[in-house]
Amino acid sequence: MSTQIAKPPNEKLLPIVKAVEAATGIRPRSATIIRWIINGVRGVKLQAQSVGHKWYCSAEDVRRFVDAQGVASGATASAMNSELAAINHELESQGF
Length: 96
Prior knowledge:
It is a single chain. By secondary structure, this protein is mainly alpha-helical. The chain is 52% helix and 9% strand. It has four helices and three strands, in the order βααββαα. The protein has helices at residues 16-24, 30-38, 59-73, 77-93, and strands at residues 14-15, 49-51, 54-57. β2 and β3 (54-57) form a beta hairpin.
């Protein structure tokens, strides 16, 4: 069962890749983000809206998703962001 996160109605929607980049400083592939939306991680799904064939969410949606992952795993959001940045750096150094 996945956990739904409430979202205030006044948040600015961005394309999903831009929202994740704005919130975390990393730019994962859109397929990864769509997997977070559809399947979730540790029982929490990233809240997003589909308009046509494109997905949108706010940077705040991403922050809530990352924070919920920290609660589910016992990690903090800053530790997760540091780990994601290190992984991204390693992938870039290998040409990905």
